[in-house]
Amino acid sequence: MNNIEVKDCTYEYVRRDENDEVVEKLSAISHLNFTIEEGSFVCVLGHNGSGKSTLAKLFNALQIPTEGCVIISGMDSREEANVFPIREKVGMVFQNPDNQIIASVVEEDVGFGPENIGIPTEEIWKRVADALDAVNMEAYRLKSPNHLSGGQKQRVAIAGTLAMEPKTIVLDEPTAMLDPSGRAEVIRSIRELNQKKGITIILITHYMEETVDADRIILMDQGKLVLDGTPKEIFSKVEELKSLRMDVPLITDLAHELCLSGMPISEGILKEEELVEELLAIFGKDSFGEEEAASQAPTLSLEETENEKDKEKEKDFILKVENLSCIYQKGTAMESYALKDIHLSIKRGSFSALIGHTGSGKSTLLQHFNGLIKPEEGEISVHFRKNPALILQDKGFLFWKGKKRKVEKEGVLSFREEGFDFQGLRFKVGLVFQYPEYQLFEETVFEDVLFGPKNQGLSLEEARKEAEEALRSMGVEEALWQKSPFELSGGQKRRVAIAGVLAMDPELLILDEPTAGLDPAGREELFQVIAHLQERYAMTILLVSHSMDDVARYAEEVFVLNQGECIRQGSPEEVFSHKKEMEELGLGLPQIRAFLYSLEEKGLSFPKKNTVEEAKAMILSAYKKRRGGENA
Amino acid sequence: MLREITLGQYYPVDSLLHRLDPRVKLAGTFLFLIALFIVNSWTAYIFLALVLLLLIKLSNVPFSFMVRGLKSVLFLLLLSVSFNLFLTPGKEIFRFYIFKISQEGLHIASMMAVRLILLVLSSSLMTLCTTPNELTDGMEKGLSILKKLHLPIHEIAMMMSIALRFIPILVEETDKIMKAQMARGADFESGGIVHKAKAMVPILVPLFVSAFRRAYDLALAMESRCYQGGEGRTKMKPLHYERRDYLSYLFLLIVLALSIGSRFVSLP
Q: Which residue intervals define the domain ABC transporter in the entry (chain A) (predicted)?
């Protein structure tokens, strides 16, 4: 039976001027036609601005189509009387976990929906209990939502719609603001609802991995439906997807690449297990690359010179942390270590990554780096290339406090040095927080980027020059510079905000989850820009990320933080070779590496690599060798 | 600093006070405040303080947690106490430079301090053991008479509960924005008043933008869950008085009566 029917549906946003005259019409959705079967699991994909969110709102009559109609369980959303019955049938879960919880106690929030539709009291209690049970949140029913993690909040939001006993739940990027473990929790709950309760799920997402278990994928572009089919069908069209600013799961990508290079592998492989099986069928149980690995292992003397090189490099740090500890609520019963005896050093000009699950102390550590939190115990020192002038001295005389003067000093500077200028430090260590676009405030993009350089005390001319360069290097087109930052799209805002930090010409740029909430192409583009900064300006980059794939791809050095301790640092190769530890920490492994491990478990072993390119080259060379051997 | 505000926060434990009908608690707080302003003798203040202590004990909210809420009004407290202390004319008992303290001043200031402390403690006790939703339910039902005058009681109550829910979120957000602007070299500490006021712009604009975005999101979320005002709504936790509620009313009236009575007998 058809649950939702979309018939020749168009939705237009109309912008009017003060005189109520139509300035422009933007059609978010144009002439859509499709139906959704009851009990199915449908994923809607599409880049930012493709009309997905508008579509979601059409499903439960939050928006009424300008043309055509949407029919939900036989009810036309255009009829006023149907609006509330439709909303009862179709529940919605939104992106931001904080902005959709109404009550201050979990159970009361879940009860909010049933209260609105006039369910008798005893029935509400039963529904609340059932709904919380269905998302495994019954233990938290009396908690305040403010004390829950992002994933838990989203599950409460799901329970909130569930309590209204809907037939369909529409989720609009429910995982975009969550960390990987939160994402997994939410997806698991959604899947269970679909399988156990037969609830129709419409999931809008940017994460391709979340779609592999769906019954059907709908791909939107510019308000139109461009692809529609099972995940297998959709992900067979790798090239087409990429041209639509979409991505494919890395496993699919690897399989596709291998297939293109002539290996007998079918298209549209979605899951690890499938590729494992295909490769086993080709190679059988075997082991490759051991000789190679052996030849790679450095001899002892080599190792020694390496060590010496390391010591050389050690001197060339830009920021070094020794014995750093930070204690919250010191001296009370609730005393706890936010950071504990941290040692690390960031090499100048390197691309490093800091990883650790939510609450591991990452943000506390970052704020130490630019002096937002001053070190209480332990030592942080910096060594910048250009003369930093980070020491302030009073020019005063006896009681008269003079204006502070910057004194130039070369070489390594400790934060503990007399008169250390933390304000000045912040211009050298640029810190880009998560969702930096929330800090934009000026009337124009250009003015906003000027804020940092102006604070630096540069002349207007110099400041303008810096701002221009920053905007250019972030790839913000000149046409946008005089626009209000609030008119820009999400991805553009993000770039402007980063440019705002870049304009201060920092030597160390710290980015906290810079790609959160962007679509796949947006993520890719932003990383390109960041990598470019490192190359062109020899800027040192420190990336904080939950995506092990991004870390493996870009970072040269990785720091692993757990419960306030830096438990490991080294190259991605080295860090990710501790498979068990990474899994126990809940951080996981890069997908390709994880795949190679499962391959090994089945008896086919390859050297462990992290990226698609490396794995492809390796498997191909093994394949060629094998073919060569067979032919001879 | 902003995180320490306990005023308007709920402390989730189970206790007699938590289980009381919110209307009782609202009325109780109101009556207690009246009593505070009626009494004028130390004996009566000690009596009211003891009553409050008993209630705090009954509420299972740790006393230290309650006291933390006082910190946020410390400035106000000191200000009003020092005004009373130094500016009340009367018999001089202490003099330092131009500051003089009179006996009457000392008396009024200390009474004022006790009154304010009890006032803050009693109202935060109410919010600590009443969820914002209960509070609004209580208000809505308790004041439902006013609906007949076409006052939008349900809407006001709903707005209050949402405001209370979002206070901690916005406080956290302010903190984040402040740090983000400091990372861009903003300076909130130095400079005169004009400079400081100007320095607030980079915080206030993003804060307002974000508050509006949240309001929009929340409105959507509420609509999608069929919210359509107070009409036809049922209650998950409907209010009805139980024996303990009637007993509490009785207790409150006795406290109030004693307080009023204390004015007619001379007490130290």
A: 14-247, 319-588
Give dist(CA A547, CA A514) in Å, integer.
11
Domain residue limits, chain B:
2-262
| ipTM for this model | 0.86
Sheet strands (E) in B67-179: 92-96, 99-102
Cα distance between residue A491 and residue A517, in whole Å: 9
Scanning B225-242, the segments in alpha helix (DSSP H) are: none
At residue A310, the pLDDT reads 56
Chain Cα centroid distance, residue A553:
15
Residues A188 and A276 in one domain: no
Residue A447 or B41, more confident: A447
Same domain, A272 and A225: no
What percentage of chain A has pLDDT greater than the value 70?
A: 91
Q: For residue A280, tell me if it sits in a domain.
A: yes
Question: In the prediction, which pLDDT does A572 show?
Answer: 92
Residues A198 and A284 in one domain: no
* Four-CA torsion B122, B127, B130, B135, nearest 10 degrees: 110
Residue range A218-254, pLDDT digits in tens: 999 988 999 999 999 999 888 888 888 888 889 999 9
Q: Are A144 and B12 in contact (CB under 8 A)?
A: yes
Closest alpha carbon within chain A to B174: A439
Please tell me the predicted confidence (pLDDT) of residue A399: 54
- Nearest 10 degrees: CA dihedral of A28, A32, A37, A39? -10
Residue A64 belongs to domain spanning: 2-248
Residues A19 and A165 reside in one and the same domain: yes
B12: nearest CB among A120, A144, A157: A144
Do A161 and A263 sit in the same domain of this protein?
Answer: no
Mean pLDDT across chain A: 87
Q: Which residues of A touch B226 (CB under 8 A)?
A: 84, 87-88, 113, 116-117, 164
| R_g of chain A computed on alpha carbons | 27
End-to-end CA separation in angstroms for chain A:
59
Write down the pLDDT at residue A301.
45
Residue B219 touches partner A, C-beta closer than 8 Å: no
Instruction: Please list the ranges in chain B whose pLDDT falls under 50.
Output: 1-6
**Domain count within chain A:** 3
> DSSP strand E in A73-144: where?
75-76, 90-93
Q: What is the per-residue pLDDT across A382-423, written as a single tens digit (0 to 9) for each?
A: 888 776 667 776 655 555 555 666 777 777 888 888 878 888
- DSSP for A258-315 reads HHHTT----S---SHHHHHHHHHHHH-SEE-SHHHHHHHSPPHHHHHHHHHHHHHHHH
Interface of B with A in 53-112 (CB under 8 A): none
Q: Does B234 touch chain A (CB under 8 A)?
A: yes
**Residue A631's pLDDT is what?**
63
Kindly tell me if the per-residue pLDDT of A308 is higher than 60.
no
For the entire predicted model, the pTM comes to: 0.83
| Least CB–CB distance from A105: residue in B133, B186, B228 | B133
Give me the residue from B168, B185, B238 closest to A146, CB to CB.
Answer: B168
